[in-house]
Amino acid sequence: MLNLSSPSEPRRAIQLAQPRWAVNARAEVLDEPIITPATTLRQPGQTRAFASVLGSVRHGLQQGDRLIVVTGDSGTGKTLLCRALMEQSEPQTRMSVMLQPPATPEDLLAHFLRDVGVLDNGTSAVLMSRHNLLFALQRFLESLIPQRGRAVLVIDEAQHLAPMVLEQLRLALNFETGDAALLQVVLVGQPELDTLLRWPELRRVSQRISRHCELGGLEPDEFDAYVEECLERRSPGSLVRFTPAAAKTLVSLSRGVPRIVDRLCSHALELAAVDNMRRIEPRVIRTAAKRLGLEVPDLKTSRTVYAGAAALTVCAVLAGGLWGWSNREPVKAASSGSGGAPVAAAVAAVSPAAPAVTRTIETAGGLTVTVASFRSESRARAVVAQLVDEGLPAFVRARSETGPYQVIVGPYVSAEEAAAAQKSLAAKGVAGTEVRIETTDLTQTAWR
To answer: Cβ(245)–Cβ(209) under 8 Å?
Structure first.
């Protein structure tokens, strides 16, 4: 008998959702990681700590963390982190970034709903009750389920949030489907945010924290590369560079804060352009710091503190011996019955009326320690070689082509560093050292 009915369609195999234990077992057999690690990619102009925190926050959002807290001191890049999260958000993510913390729960809900397009920009939170705002938020979050999307709320300066606003955030985190959160929150603020979340009345909020990240400053080993990137961004292809002494001054005044480093570099380049300078010296960094209102140590105070070191003579250093050098050549000193005569004679021996060298020196603006003075350059360089072997930054300089030749240690940024160098020399048997402040004033004698 002829069958005129349409052929039956082949039955489709029914696919059942695998339990979690089966998925984990398959991952173990196939050597597949169950949880992927966070990816850290440092972009130019970013610190290592910033790139690490940004990668950790993005990874937490992908893993479904409900509440992420990021803290850091001022100038470490918290606002930049909020903007980076918005710029790098995925297409299926509806994100709202609040750079100013809302004052009331109604402001919080209305601001978020306006950012995601549920409310018009002209809608005021005063005209809507909290119940209506919560109902609109729930309907919006439920609409993301078929699209497999998620909503993210990022709040900067979160240390200023009122407890009732934080409690409203906790209630909003209850919107979920299964084990997936429909709303994820990132709180970014200064270290005071940790203190706020430890309040007893906010313990239920702190219990919801899934991830805590801390933004730090520049590490010592990345400082040079970061400064080079700052110079390249502001003056591409320029030959303007910092001297070693200026780099030390930059580290000391900025304290490793990226924002201060950026601003100091910017103002230093402006000052260097005015004077047509190719090498930025410490005095330029200090001038830029004063423009920014930073606290700059007064070098005149250091001169007063260490003026007593001039009472000891270089001849005393040579007479006492410098690590057993028997072939040293002491500076001539006129004998006299008074105790101050040898000092005056030694100073006169190392500062004759020779033509002054008036060119700019690289150590300008720093503190140096004068160790000894020699008539022979070979003797001075032998002393420098042993000082360098001992780990001290020593070098030789002369006022004229014929000497005398001074052995100098430094430069140092602060008086504390110079004092530490003096103590180190004294421990090695070298006494009578003198601390001086380098200068580039053309009216004063500058050593080469």
So the answer is: no
Q: Helix 130-143 and helix 105-115: axis angle, to 10°?
A: 30
Question: Which helix or strand (DSSP H or E) is residue 22 part of?
Answer: helix 20-29
What distance in Å separates the CA atoms of residue 409 and residue 424, rounded to the nearest whole number?
A: 11
Please state, in angstroms and rounded to a whole number, the distance separating the CA atoms of residues 365 and 247: 12
Lowest-confidence pick of 16-30, 222-236, 274-288, 392-406: 16-30
**CA nearest to 366, candidates 315, 421, 406, 322:** 421
Maximum CA extent, the chain: 144
User: What average pLDDT is seen over the chain?
Assistant: 75
416's CB contacts (< 8 A; 6+ apart) are none
Whether the CB-CB separation of 380 and 297 falls below 8 Å is answered with no
Question: pTM above 0.85?
Answer: no
pLDDT at 410 over 90: no
Domains of the chain: 37-215 (3.40.50.300), 220-296 (1.10.8.60), 301-437 (3.30.70.1070)
Q: Which of 233, 264, 269, 234 is nearest to 249 (CA)?
A: 264
Q: How far apart are CA 55 and CA 48, in angstroms?
A: 11
- The encoded tokens of residue 11 equal 């039955």
